[in-house]
Amino acid sequence: MFLVGHSLLTDTAWHFKKKEGKKKNSGWTGEGTVRANTLLNDHPNPHYANNKIKTTKYTLLSFLPKNLFEQFHRFANVYFVFIALLNFVPVVNAFQPELALAPVVFILSVTAIKDLWEDYRRHRSDTEINHMDCLVYSSMERRYVEKYWKEVQVGDFIRLRCNEILPADVLLLSSSDPDRLCHIETATLDGETNLKQRQVVRSFLDLDCEFDPFKYHSVIECEKPNNDLNRFRGYIVHRSGRRDVLCKENLLLRGCTIRNTEEAVGIVIYAGHETKAMLNNNGPRYKRSKLERQMNVDVFWCVIILLVICSFAAVGHGLWMFQYGDKRPVFDVLSPQGTNLSPIMSAIYLFLTLIIVFQVLIPISLFVSIEIVKICQVYLIHQDMDLYDEETDSHLQCRALNITEDLGQMQYIFSDKTGTLTENKMVFRRCTVAGVEYSHDANARRLAMYQEMDSEEEECMSHGGTLPRRESVTSHQSARVVLRSQSTKSHRRTGSRAEAKRASILSKHTAFSSPMEKDITPDPQLLYKVNECSSQMDFMRFHSQPMSQLSSDLSDIIDFFIALTICNTVVVSSPNQPRHKVRMRFELKSPVKTIEDFIKRFTPSRLTSGSNSSSSSSLITNRSSNKGCSSLLSSPSAESTLTKLHEEQSSHLEPTFSPVPPCYDGKASWNLEEGELRYEAESPDEAALVYAARAYKCSLVGRLPDQVTVELPHLGKLSFELLHTLGFDSTRKRMSVVVKHPLTDQITVYTKGADSVIMDLLKPLDTGKRQKKIICRTQNYLNLYAADGLRTLCIAKKILSKEEYACWLQCHLEAETAIQGREELLFQSALRLETNLQLLGATGVEDRLQDGVPETVAALRRAGLQIWVLTGDKQETAVNIAYACKLLDPEEEMLTLNADSQEACALLLEESLHYIQAKFLCSSADQAAKAFHTNFVPCEINSSSSLSSHNTSPFLVHRLGLVIDGRTLAYALDKTLEDKFLEVARSCRSVLCCRSTPLQKSMVVKLVRNKLKVMTLAIGDGANDVSMIQVADVGVGISGQEGMQAVMASDFALPRFRYLQKLLLVHGHWCYSRLANMILYFFYKNAMFVALLFWYQFYCGFSGSAMIDQWYLIFFNLMFSAFPQLVTGTLDKDVSAETLQRLPQLYVNGQNSEEYKPYMFWMNMIDAFYQSLVCFFIPYFAYADSDVDLFTWGTPITTLALFTILLHLGIETKTWTWMNWLSIIFSITLFFTVALCYNASCPTCFSPSNPYWTMQRQLQEPLFYLLCLITPVTALLPRYALILSHPWCRSSTNKYSHTVETINIISFKRLIPRCAFQI
Amino acid sequence: MMASSYNAKEEDGHHSGSASHGGAAVVKSKKPDNTAFKQQRLPAWQPILTAGTVLPAFFVIGLIFIPIGIGLYVTSNNIKEFEIDYTGVDMNSACYSCAKNFSWNSTTSCLCTVDFTLEQPFESNVFMYYGLSNFYQNHRRYVKSRDDSQLNGDMSALTNPSKECEPYRMSEGLPIAPCGAIANSLFNDTLKLYYLEANGTRNEIPLVKKGIAWWTDKHVKFRNPGGNANLTAVFQGNLTATSKPVNWRNPVYELDQDPENNGFINEDFIVWMRTAALPTFRKLYRIIQKKSSTMPTLPSGKYVLDITYNYPVLSFDGRKRMILSTISWMGGKNPFLGIAYITVGSICFFLGVVLLIIHHKYDTRSTGADIPN
Fold first, then answer.
1. Distance of CA A515 to the CA centre of its chain
2. Interval B170-197: pLDDT, tens
3. A1221 in Cβ contact with A1213 (< 8 Å)
4. Which residue of A1187, A1197, A1261, A1276 is the best one to mutate when testing the B interface, meaning the one whose CB has the most B CBs within 10 A?
5. Would you call B139 and A1100 a contact, using CB atoms and an 8 Å cutoff?
6. What is the pTM of this model?
7. B93-130 burial string, b = 16+ CB within 10 Å, else e?
8. Is A285 an 8 Å CB contact of chain B?
9. What value of ipTM does the predicted structure carry?
10. Residue A950: phi, psi to the nearest 5?
């Protein structure tokens, strides 16, 4: 064995080279070789990453340098350190160097500690993941041993048990499943909760005994690690030289969970950071809020101002010195060396000194204050009861601390659909069979019960759904049905929290298992019919009568339910062992057995010829046809040459019930043992239908690749031989199963699909009056369902004669084995089969929206937000949901972009653009009127104010919806087309991207963010949304059922979508306006304080002297004036939460950055300029030509500045709580306490000011108090007067007695410059 | 001033009741507390600016400020002040020659005499100041150039003054006491005031030189090294030998005869060391105490000021003044604050009137049109 390794090495290296040329044209991006890790001492794959993950930014050693480096990215920090260091140069120093260093060190360390803590949290979660256990084959001990995840290496064999999470990307080599399958749940990866099947590598399929790693000596060649979840290509090269193709069906991805499979063995292909899951996980991005970016511009302006005033003073100093000439006055002290400085040199030195003295102009404490305020804001958001979900007992989580204010400035929302907008729960609502509608009233009542409490809170909202498919506004579906208004609510409020919790725990085990989805109440009429029908059939079977004697109505019913049960890919599991596939292979004991059957059962490989062979391979084929079909054909194929001699009556009179289940008699006991079965499906609606069928005692009991077992009332278990499964794909919009009916022994095709497609594929209308009637009626009901917002599916069947089937099979097999254009051929083949169908009925399934989604969407819309939905779902579903959640309006036109090539896409975009222009620009006047008219139909409340929000959006948004699918999106996102795409997209009111991959989602977000320069928010719940969440300015994760990946990547995690409304409209608004005001106030405050020093330069020979003690200078911002603004920045509310929610239009304020415009900075600067003049010159004149000394004069100035600044804040504060009062009182007390203590502490220290007893003396002077009275009043008079007079606000005198609307208007007014001057 | 509208919401803590029954209370819920603070529902006062609240505010400010201003103005006007410039810039002035020829290097003093007349008698205590103009005592390097420890009598600082004193730290190898530029530039003119009686005799007015410095300065901040006894020994001792500041005539221990006013605790020195805030300043020089309740401290009449002219100011275009002033509770004569109060009060009052007018005009104009609801 050990020798093998060596020979292998050379062998494959040769292979590798030899294949080089070939691989080039096969389009590989690169390849790597993976060898088995069975060697004792030498690791064969050393150049691959190991499985240890590390998402932390720092290590112990690198923390200090790296953190400092990152902090110095902030320009201000560099500046402050520079200033602090400058102080150490004797010739320019202004302050005691150590003292000047204090604030910088303080600020840097606060930030560093915060970063450290965040990194530590990441480290802990990494360690947790790294230390998970898994079974790895040890070649030493020749068995599987437990190892940590981080010890897993490429080439290791891993044994996986049921419900284990995959530690790395693993190539499946063996499975305990007899079909050599392995089921995985990819919820953490792409958000889909259904099970997916993975296959053992083909060459290991036939291993009858257990897989032994020691006998493995093949080499795997595969792609370089990449982030494409849906692609994996490679070869496995056996020792014999045989090469087998590997595809993504063989690969188990990291993060997925093994389900329904007891044991599987695989070899690690990619590990750690090279796994697809990790590669898809772009690292966290340092986010800087828009406000902060804006602020940085003004910080930059501050720098310029600083430089200007410093240069000014420096020139002044030069001139001042120059006027004395050689006669050096006594007060102009020589440099320490005793040398006489020239005016120019001295001016240069002074420039640097002044930069130190005026450093406060760049607000050092601003950054610290902002961080503190943001933390407080985050805390308050976190504590909001309205954002707390009782069912899951979870809060909103703020994971990013530095972008709260961005929430108030969002312009685009990118939302995932499943699990975000919807609950990801499908509920069967009603159905129609053979033209008869069964309204399932009891079921509706049951559903209504689930939300009794909700209805109290939110009343009047109608869920106006419309036809699921809609190419244009053709149908004027004005008759909106409001029937459903109650049923859309979820069940979550039903019971106590404990109950809800239990339910949610249960739902974690199986995807679709809430009682709401499972316990369908059958329609009594239909139930009776089903019973009657099956008892008749039972009778007939017993008496060996042909089934054809059954009345066509009843046979339709039974066929309908059989179709519901088997025409899907649902996997059955039992609740006792959740996630274990129920396998019941009914041995066909009946003597009537075909040879094929015989062959099938005794041939080891099921890939041999025969009818069943295709069924097992169909698992692969249907998948490939799913994803791969590239044609846009939708018309039924004209070449369907198979002539149909459709008979209802079977010509064969063979024994009708050949397969008798072995445990037929023990049916009841079996049922008791197993209890209820659970169904797991690829899409939730499949499960919903199976559950619905079960309610009619027609339950799916087991599914194998070649056989489906169904239990029917009276009839017991029946096994349908599954001949083919033609999987669902978005082009065909249907799926079919070909089975051999055990009762009739006919080959039957059951098809389930979108109504639009199925209706076209039905048998020509002239076939029978009854059919015609059924079709007509069903169509009516379908329209009704669609109007009701239900997802509709049509069920049809078709009976094939043996000859037809043989003929079709021939073609199909050809297609399957074709080398070129296989997918296309398979598609054609499917088309040939699915024609001339006989309609059985239709179902209406409700894809339940989350609570309050339509309202939230509507409110966000009115707030001027553009909402895009990016989903991995199929187009119909997405469109359907979009209608249900009012994202698309039935009255608005819909553009659908589906293209299969770059050129087609370009053409389509061009056309759409022309269309939009033609439609909306040329007849703009007409349209405007129309738009105006239609705009206000759905806008129930406050229609008058919605005008304002429409005006504000930067471009004209038409009443258009855009739907684009993943492939077209891929073309549209190309460099050459992206501009056009954006052009089209942004003129649409809503955009829907279906079938988009995670990467595409993030590309769309990135495109919009970068090109349109707008603020984007991405919201999603699954791992497939992670990259989008990370790219957006603000990422929001829904902490729902689908794992925590999205939450981990997000900045905010919400329990429910609807909380987004309050988060954005209320908290976002508040955070933004609070921070914006605080920042402006900061600039003002610092400028005002610095200007005091600047004016003084005119009276000290521009020597850089300061009358304010250096301690006051340095701690003024950090301590004395810091707290009130923090309180205001945390608690101030310009508009109440109620008003903000009632008037989403107020959100526009933040979107347009109304609170913080560039001119406001300058306004504040001018005000600061004026106020400082007042604060400087009043004491100046009051003390002119007196015996006051420098710092005794500076003390009242400091005090005045403090009073003025605090009063200014008082004017800016809109709501005063006791905290505001307290903080202001505290600030003043603190200042005087510190000043008094400081001035009494040491008679000889604190050179040069040496302020011993200064404050104490000042407090004895009446002049001090007189100054404190007049100066702030004078300083703030203009601002106060301006605010009063700004908009001489109109209102009526008796304002308090007015209605809500008046108050709204008032507060809306107040918002702009806070002007509600009511008279 | 402003109308207050309390929009406090009463606590509604009733909802939580439903969750706690039925054993669910065992599980600790993460539900946020329903407190006013956490839910951001703190009772808040929203100042709503209405005409009814704003206009009285203006009037009140006006009504308070104007009387204060008048009071201040009157007080300031009652203060008597006499000022005489003796720099000697003018050819005719008495000290012209002194000013012309004098520099820091001169060894002999120059004497000059200035006559002046007080028109009105100064009733209460009179404070005698010397005033300097264009003298930047607040220059950054100048302000720093001192050693507070030395001045506080610290022996080690006496022999090894702070670096801040450079370049006035050492002289001829000896540490300067007191060191630094401030001390070095000590104002050293001597002023003597005589009342010229009608018969022509000069009657020297007694000038008190104690009590002109801050009490804390004299007793806490400034101390002589080794106590006040035998300063000569301290400043000239073997181990603590010091040198006088470059510009000084006499060493620090010869500033005055009185041991309580000599050395670092000499009050003229202390006053000088408190650097002025602005380039034009005055410093208290002497106090003329009121003798009896009947006689004015300085009766009106002719006076003679004898100046020992030592301090050169012309090189930097400075001026020297002698000021006689009485003081009030609010300090020396300065009408500014009174005027400022009157002005601001008037502006407020005026604004109030203007707003009132606008209010009335507006109110009549829009009553009909502006109530849409």
1. 27
2. 888 899 989 999 999 999 899 999 999 8
3. no
4. A1187
5. yes
6. 0.76
7. bbbeebbeebeeeeeeebebebebebeeebbbebbbbb
8. no
9. 0.91
10. -70, -35
